[in-house]
């Protein structure tokens, strides 16, 4: 015969143990779900990312990322505008930026130059206008003869090809380490990279990352020195950052 005290203990303890077991299995289930999710997320960073840069969530695969980029770039109405009404205004402003860089001895007429994410090539036309003849653009969508087809995560160029690389599309990089690594690979030793980035607010809805300071760039350009950071007014971008690839 159980005593009253024993009965009471059983009545209290049994549901309590049951509760603990249930909570534990629920916890295990939830953690498994989350790990599974983060493992299957293709937009995970290509290497540990510095603080002050965040990859945007929501790209379910690399194809989903590319499709989103192409959705705007291939828009026929927009392409019409970029190549007509927008053309001269943008070429003129890019030409001012490049003239400034020439005055600071960061760009020369003889520099072999690449513009990354150049869309219809206004920046390439600007380089040619200021006398940098040997220049080409690269984008997911080609626009001959100024822009050839290529993904900035895997540039279609040999190592140590260019003296100068310009880009205002860093915020479109899903894999920022690859974006920077490819620039450092295809630049010659002593070559110059100029990025126009946005630090003061969030970039547009086609961006794949948000940058909060130049520190992540300094960390990722590990074979280069930071030459200059200055404020600009560049088509919605507010900061010009200049790196020079190490000579040895
Ligand atoms: C905001 S637009 C800038 C276009 C041009 N630089 C300008 O200022 O007019 C971004 C460009 O980056 C291109 N882009 C996005 N992801 C890319 C990738 N992975 N490789 C190459 N280009 C890419 C897009 O196709 C688009 O033309
Ligand atoms: C872009 O996406 C919209 C809907 O989100 C679609 O209607 C349109 O056809 C797409 N355009 C291109 C060029 O892929
Ligand atoms: C560079 O090219 C521009 C435009 O063709 C020309 O006016 C300028 O004199 C050239 N500069 C040098 C240093 O050759």
Automatic annotation (TrEMBL):
InterPro entries the record matches: Methyltransf_11, SAM-dependent_MTases_sf
CDD domains found in the cross-reference section: AdoMet_MTases (cd02440)
Record domain Methyltransferase type: where: 114-195
Pfam family, one: Methyltransf_11
Molecular function via GO: S-adenosylmethionine-dependent methyltransferase activity
Keyword set, alphabetical order: Membrane, Methyltransferase, Transferase, Transmembrane, Transmembrane helix
Membrane-spanning ranges: 12-32
Name of the protein this chain belongs to: S-adenosyl-L-methionine-dependent methyltransferases superfamily protein
Native source organism of the sequence: Perilla frutescens var. hirtella
Organismal lineage: Eukaryota, Viridiplantae, Streptophyta, Embryophyta, Tracheophyta
């Amino acid at each position: 015969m159980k005593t009253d005290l024993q009965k009471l203990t059983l009545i209290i303890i049994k549901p309590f143990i049951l509760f603990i077991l249930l909570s534990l299995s629920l916890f295990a289930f939830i953690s498994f779900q989350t790990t599974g999710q983060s493992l299957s997320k293709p937009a995970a960073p290509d290497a540990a990312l510095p603080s002050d840069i965040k990859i945007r969530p929501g790209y379910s695969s690399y194809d989903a990322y590319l499709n989103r980029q192409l959705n705007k770039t291939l828009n026929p109405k927009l392409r019409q505008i970029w190549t007509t009404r927008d053309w001269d205004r943008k070429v003129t402003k890019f030409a001012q930026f490049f003239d400034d860089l020439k005055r600071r001895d960061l760009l020369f007429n003889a520099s072999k130059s690449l513009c990354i994410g150049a869309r219809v090539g206004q920046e390439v036309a600007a380089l040619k206008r200021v006398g940098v003849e040997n220049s080409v653009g690269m984008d997911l969508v080609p626009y001959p003869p100024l822009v050839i087809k290529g993904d900035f995560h895997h540039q279609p160029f040999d190592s140590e090809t260019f003296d100068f690389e310009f880009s205002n599309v860093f915020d479109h990089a899903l894999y920022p380490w690859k974006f920077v690594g490819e620039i450092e690979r295809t630049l010659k030793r002593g070559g110059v990279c100029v990025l126009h980035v946005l630090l003061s607010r969030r970039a547009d809805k086609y961006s794949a990352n948000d940058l909060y300071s130049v520190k992540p760039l300094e960390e990722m350009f590990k074979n280069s020195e930071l030459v200059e950071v200055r404020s600009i007014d560049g088509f919605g971008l507010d900061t010009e950052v200049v790196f020079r690839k190490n000579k040895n």
